[in-house]
Amino acid sequence: MIVAKFGGTSVGDAAAIARTAAIIRGRLDRQPMVVVSALAGTTNRLIEIAEHSAKGELIVALAILEELRTRHFDTVTELLGGHETHDEVAAEVGAMFDELAHLAEALSVLGHLTNRSHDAVAAMGERLSAPIVTAAMQRAGLPAVFVDARLVMLTSEDYGRAEPLADDIAAACRAQLAPLVREGKVPVLGGYIGATRGGVTTTLGRGGSDFSASLFGAAMEAEAIEIWTDVDGMLTADPRVVPDARLIGHIRFDEAAELANFGAKVLHPSTITPAVKRGIPVFVFNSRRPEGTGTRITFDAPRTPVRAIAGKTRTVVVKIRSPRMLATPGALRKIFEVFEKNRTSVDVVATSEVSVSVTLDDDQHIDAVVGQLAAFGDVSVERHRGIVALVGAGLGESTETMARALTALGDLRLHMVSLSATGINLTLIVDGDTVHEAMRRLHAAFFNGAA
Ligand code: ASP
Ligand code: MG
Fold this sequence. Notes:
This protein is an alpha/beta fold.
């Protein structure tokens, strides 16, 4: 069996939901189960409803609620108009909006938003989308069956970002989903939402539907997990920077994780860990172009020196020069403690006998950091730097890559170089305003003509 997850844009309106049904029809022989997000943008709007209500701005909250109600009813009419299931689904949707209005009123009376009530409101998006998608699939002749995710996605009571209870989930999936799949049915569930053992609604945190799909896939011992979204897959570089970036057919999990650090937003690798750990491949596909080949993410894609090129333009470098101190044991620890105390995470580190240079993504607490580091030596701050990274699990094994990368940079100024110990990331610190040019040069050097 497989788990097919459809993100918000893949169920954003009636046309998208119809495409989703067609994709599942083409996969019936693989025994799919379906996980859906809320209709695109819905969760944000729901959270606004919760926040306005708790601030006593009930009128604003209810106006947003009406907008969402209209959108959901319109989608139901477009998908099910004239069909026997229309009235039943419309009644269910109506009841959920009534429940949401009661929640909003209660919050406005309380004047206070807890994580628990936040989840009750935020979960509405997937509680609505899953039965709508199910009915649309049934109308399209598919053997779809709605299953309330809260019966199987059992979690801790950490509202807002609940921890999944893997054993309970596996048992519930075996009892409630496996028999349906064996009968040839297609279970359809909302992602992102779950419930405590006591039945109180929880959520897994924003963007949690990929995590749901991965957890269900692991519990069901799926052959594959498909993440259907609105891009073709993961690319060799950000196409806004490198116009001839190309699709990555197969990528290793650790490479995908490394790229996520650089803001590759297709999918957050931590959310697919439960599946990848069990050796289940995860695919990313475009629901607008289902004929595409997508990106396959596994633990063991063949190693290659450079899988992708990434960059960030706003990096700060802090240098500490201290001839005497750096030779003494424990010096680095004391320096790093300063960053830790100021909740500033360090990215790249380079040391010499007399100096340490580190890069920071976030310069929020930089003044405090610099003030405290001054006790150890001369501190200087270089703003307007940027990072370009080559990511590939075979980097460390390739003798030629480094030379080729430095040659490709040409006349661009290089400030620091670091090859990660795991040999997966070659990081180059350049001037911030040359990051994009550096990415293009490196991409040309490593990918052009290599297709
Ligand atoms: N609807 C949820 C969110 O927007 C979960 C998801 O789409 O992954 O965060
Ligand atoms: Mg998402």
